[in-house]
Amino acid sequence: MSTQGNRTRPDRVTTQTVVEMKHSGEKISMLTAYDYTMAGIVDASGVDVILVGDSASNVMAGFETTVPMTLEHMIYHTSCVVRAAERALVIADLPFMSYQVTIKEALINAGRMMKEAGAHAVKLEGGKFIADTVKRLVDAGIPVMGHLGLTPQSIYKFGTYKVRAKEEEEADNLLRDAQLLEEAGAFSVVLEKIPAELAGKVTKQLSVPTIGIGAGPHCDGQVLVLHDMLGLNKGFSPRFLRRYADLHSQMCSAVKHYIEDVKSGDFPNDKEQY
Ligand code: KIV
């Protein structure tokens, strides 16, 4: 149960709810959102978790990678989403270099994300290297979601967005990292673009839920970037993406129709004026 002002929302999804969902076998649905209107639609549709991903860098700001995203950008997007989300758990990505330098900086920045933006939890990329940071955040009362496999903030280290952990050594490291994150107190772990069998092993090994993106069906939940699953991004078609709408075409056709009506003088008509 969470509180807003002095009112309690008994139906609010919490970090405890998603852990319970793993144990009861109910799959967890997670989608990204970055603004008030979209977050309202996603929340009203009943999604369990809204992730204010730093994929905002790509889909909202038009950057090539997530690296340029700042804490101020993420606080802005998160506060817009929090104002719309009445039921979903809202998790915010901490952006690149806002939690890697020192534990103290991570505490201050995650604290700002909770206090200024109203996030219910934060997500951090990485394993062993950030396990101590995760523990300190959790000890301070900040719930943490981990993120392993393809970690886009490290794109310049890896050089590609290809599937990760196909080889035994990297797979073993990932299993170890997942265990370390759970021991540090993470309430959940995102697994991005890794073989389905490995994701299944991690999911079995952990008592906290895994949320997959391009990680197969054995995860406890799934996440997609909202703009991708709605078909707003024409140019992004990885194998794992299922498109549930073709909003790019629908929006283009609506906008073209509007332009035609303006040019022809059909809009506004008699009823559309004062
Ligand atoms: O930033 C993001 O949208 C993410 C998801 C792809 C998991 O981290």
Task: Offer a few descriptive terms.
10 strands, TIM Barrel, binds 3-methyl-2-oxobutanoic acid, eight-stranded parallel β-barrel, 2 domains, 274 residues, globular, single chain
List the helices and strands and how they pair.
Layout: E1 2-4, E2 7-9, H1 15-24, E3 28-32, H2 36-44, E4 49-52, H3 56-59, H4 71-84, E5 89-93, H5 103-115, E6 121-123, H6 131-139, E7 144-149, H7 155-158, H8 168-184, E8 188-192, H9 196-205, E9 210-213, E10 221-224, H10 226-229, H11 247-264
Parallel strand pairs: 3-4, 3-10, 4-5, 5-6, 6-7, 7-8, 8-9, 9-10
Antiparallel strand pairs: 1-2
The structure holds 3-methyl-2-oxobutanoic acid.
Residues 32, 51, 53-55, 93, 190, 192, 213, 223, 225 line the site of 3-methyl-2-oxobutanoic acid.
Order of helices and strands: EEHEHEHHEHEHEHHEHEEHH
**Which outline best applies?**
globular
- Residues in β-strands, percent: 15-25%
How many domains in all?
2
